[in-house]
Amino acid sequence: MVYLYLVNYAESNSDLAILAINTLQKDCRDDDPMIRGLALRSLCSLSLANMVEYLQPAVQRALEDVNGYVRKTAVIGVVKLFYISPSVVNETELLPSLKRLVGDSDAHVVSNTISALEEVLAAEGGYMPTEEVITSLLNRIMHFSEWGQCAILRLLIKYSVANESEMFDIMNILDGLLKQSSCAVFLSVTKIFMDLTSTRPELQQDVLQRLKGPLLTMMSSSSTELAYTVLVHIHALVSRGPRQVEVFQADFKQFFTRYNEPSYIKQMKIDILTLLADYNSAEHIVMELSEYVTDVDAEIARRAIRAIGSIAVHITSTSEMIVSSLSNLLELDIDYVCTEAAVVMKDLVRKYPEQFQQASGAVQKCLKIVSEPDGKSALLWILGEYGLLIEDAPYLLEPMIDSFMEEVGAVQLEMLTATVKLFFCRPPEVQKMLGCLLQKAIQECTHPDVRDRALLYYRLLQVSPEEARRVICAPKEVVEEFQEEMDADLRDRVFEEFNSLSTVYKQPASKFIQVSGSPFVAMKMPPPPLPEGMEPQVAQPKERSPQSLETTNLLLA
Fold first, then answer.
1. Which of 190, 195, 241, 242 is nearest to 216 (CA)?
2. Domains of the chain by range and CATH?
């Protein structure tokens, strides 16, 4: 209690704190190791610049103490001394003594030492381990606590593996950690395995088969925060490509949501299901996602509809079934459901124009329900593109033109384009409406983009209606691929920072923390050089096979 009192009031009473130094120094030589450790910790915690001359000899002596607890405390004392005076640590024997403790017999001392060296040597990129250090640490890794194992695995990422044989030795040793109940340790091992096999897709697929079981087990944890962390990392793995998707495809039902799960868990499972869908499982997954549309959480319903649309875009054979399913959703009297269904339907008919006939019947009812700008814009686009196929298209458009001035800019722009396109399809019915709309857009609207577009259309029509038709109704190519939410380069950068907050935020660390000078900058472990004459393999996209993969365990072979 006296030590605690001194530490708390040392900063505000620095002159008085100096009076306690003799007592603390005396206690640092006490016969009881607990007293020695507590006294040293308190002495280092005073954090006064004028105490460096007393701290350095006390810490140096404690680093060589016979008791592990005192050495462990002294290691942290070096870090505290470093922040008071970096030159004292760098110019004395403290740093060499600290490096020697990496091979200490006490596991707690080694754990503290690795973390202390990473912090003290942050400006140089942290502590760089040698082959001898790595071999010693890996042979003893089972004796360390969860925190110590994570420290060793972070250090291992900096090590360059010499050859394939050493790679398999490391992987075989770390394989024992896959039985750990600690999510942090398991994900650290996962990162190392993925890094080591990054140039060998076939081997990486086998490694994933070995990791899949523990990943699915941890995903079912009673702790929702832990389950979410595992799900985020599974999503990162599955996003890598077809080979990684194949590993988890047979277990897609594991990612069906439960009614009592929090929304963030459901959202991540829906994203994973979207990636896992293939020819065989698409129907089951779409049926499951359709159930989520009636979820009490509007965001879950929206995400489920977007997922259904994404599956249709990537799996051509499901388009007819999914368009039919979305048409049914359009008929629900729920605003946000109709909005999302309309947006997804617009994307689908851009890729599968032949499927429009199925959805045309629901457009009229949907226009009366949808109130959100995105949904209105999507429905207006459909009216403009398929005005010939929708019998009542002009009459559906007329009430929207009457409320033109009440709409947001995006809807106004889409309404202008849709009306002009419809005019070229059905001039007698739309001519009067178009004149009214152009007058409002040019004379009454204050939105510059809307006014400019209306003037462009008006002048084109004034000069030559045929030329206007050629410009505005130019034939469009069928969309083959839609832009992904995250581009490939960004996804690769995030994956290199696997097992960090970057995976959770889906952003590189540089976007949300100051990386420079940090001792814990995410790194990628360099894979071993390939055997002579062997070229790096590139994962080629493959057709999603209906056959389930046979689990192979190369690590234990």
1. 190
2. 1-127 (1.25.10.10), 162-167+176-246+502-530 (no CATH), 250-371 (1.25.10.10), 390-475 (no CATH)
Distance between CA atoms of residues 138 and 152, nearest Å: 8
CB 286 within 8 Å of CB 326: no
Contacts 24+ apart (CB under 8 A), 5-12: 6/42, 6/46, 7/42, 7/45, 7/46, 10/45, 10/46, 10/47, 10/48, 11/47, 11/48
Tokens in use for 177?
A: 């950690």
- Cα separation, 207 vs 549, whole angstroms: 13
d(CA 349, CA 353): 5
Span 476-508, pLDDT tens digits: 776 666 665 557 778 888 888 888 888 888 888
∠ Cα 208 210 213 (to 5°): 100
- Percent of all residues in the chain with a pLDDT value above 70, rounded to a whole number: 87
CA distance linking residue 269 with residue 234, whole number of Å: 10
- What pLDDT score does 546 carry? 35
